[in-house]
Amino acid sequence: xxxxxxxxxxxxxxxxxxxxxxxxxxxxxxxxxxxxxxxxxxxxxxxxxxxxxxxxxxxxxxxxxxxxxxxxxxxxxxxxxxxxxxxxxxxxxxxxxxxxxxxxxxxxxxxxxxxxxxxxxxxxxxxxxxxxxxxxxxxxxxxxxxxxxxxxxxxxxxxxxxxxxxxxxxxxxxxxxxxxxxxxxxxxxxxxxxxxxxxxxxxxxxxxxxxxxxxxxxxxxxxxxxxxxxxxxxxxxxxxxxxxxxxxxxxxxxxxxxxxxxxxxxxxxxxxxxxxxxxxxxxxxxxxxxxxxxxxxxxxxxxxxxxxxxxxxxxxxxxxxxxxxxxxxxxxxxxxxxxxxxxxxxxxxxxxxxxxxxxxxxxxxxxxxxxxxxxxxxxxxxxxxxxxxxxxxxxxxxxxxxxxxxxxxxxxxxxxxxxxxxxxxxxxxxxxxxxxxxxxxxxxxx
Length: 446
What we know:
Layout lengths: L2 E7 L10 E4 L7 E4 L16 E2 L5 E4 L4 E8 L3 E7 L4 E3 L4 H11 L7 E5 L3 E4 L1 H13 L4 E7 L3 H12 L6 E5 L2 H13 L7 H4 L3 H17 L18 H98 L4 H24 L5 H13 L5 H11 L4 H8 L3 H14 L8 H9 L1
Parallel strand pairs: 1-9, 1-11, 1-12, 7-9, 8-10, 9-11, 11-12
Antiparallel strand pairs: 2-3, 4-6, 5-6, 6-7
Helix pairs in contact: 3-6, 6-7, 7-8, 11-12
């Protein structure tokens, strides 16, 4: 239970509240309070009950610029006020702090009565209204009577609207002064739960219609209770058009809320369908990726096996070539050791040496060289001693009228790379732009 009675009082001469001073009545804490506020004294000036205030019964509201201060009057009355130098607004409810106060007072399970000084309050924000509606409808009965005083005329209708949505087991009243508020608390403490107060007995038809209208408006705007149709009171008379207009407003809000729910449902349905579609696409791509990965692995294994086979074949060929290349030097050494006529020995050694040079050239160019090719390479190397073996081979291929693509395929270069090599060779031979390397090499033969 939060509080039994909440009483608001309007500004009267009973409790003047202009000016401020620092009080040290409640422990060692220094608090800035309204001058002559009831809990700035050691006891209530109306009931004589003791007043208690603890240091942690405060909450500062930075945006609104006030300090929400709580005090206890006797065992079951909670006093609240917003301490500030300027007019301000209520931004949200200090529900947790109120529960702390009730726990400190050990009044859980008993009726709680609340007095709220509304001095300096000039507006009530929507968040506060939602908090109040949530408090009285979702938190259970937290107070028995809530009395507000010093309520400014410009927000009185809003406050009355709040009071109209209170459940049957809680009352919210508006009074003019602190003394009136405490007197109401005293009355409701002694009254039975279903006994009507003098104000309720004297309530006019106008006030009853006004209360019902404000309550219906508050339920529609603050609680979003749009399903319950309004019942136009038979005694409302001239105010009947207002109830009819409010019922039409409720219907429109209800229809708009239904359209909004349908719109959200369509968006959610479209989102679910798109999500399912994206899942199918993702699964299809994943399956394709797995399939391609398996294919790529098989192709990689096949290519790797082929490369290994080719490497083994090349290694065998290299070994055979190396063995063949080693035979001629051994024959040359054997001839040089023979005891034969010098002229015959010299002739055999020269022929063997020529075979060795021819074999070396053939290995270098990977082709069978003719006598004319060997003479061409010998003359070219004599005239251009700076040419490398690769450049000599390129000159021979050009002389034999191989085109660029064929030479690139033979040497392992790209066509563009071979074109670059031919351009560099042309410059290295010292030829002019209009001179052809084929014609130049043909001049060697002539």
